[in-house]
Amino acid sequence: MNKDNTRLIDIADLQIGLYVFLDLGWMQHPFPLNHFKIQHQSQIDTIRSLGVRKVRYAPDKSDIDLDGTCSASTKPIASAAAEQPVLDKKQQHKAMLNQQRAQLLSCDRRFNEALGIYKDIVDQITQQPQSCLKNAEKLIAEFINDFLGQDEVSIRLLSENHGEKNMLHSLNVTILSMLLAKASGMDAPQIQDIGVAALLHDIGKIMLPNRIRWHDEHFTPAENNLYETHVAHSLTLAKQMGCSSVIQQIIAQHHEYADGSGFPLRSTEKDIPLPSQIVSLINTYDHLCNPSNPSAAVTPHEALSFIFAKLRPKFNTGTISRFVHMMGVYPPGSVIQLSDQRYALVITVNSSRPLKPKVLIYDASIPSDEALIVDLEAHPEIGIQRSLKPLQLPKIVFDYLSPRKRACYFFERGRSIETAALSS
Question: Mean pLDDT, to the nearest integer, of 395-423?
Answer without folding.
Answer: 72
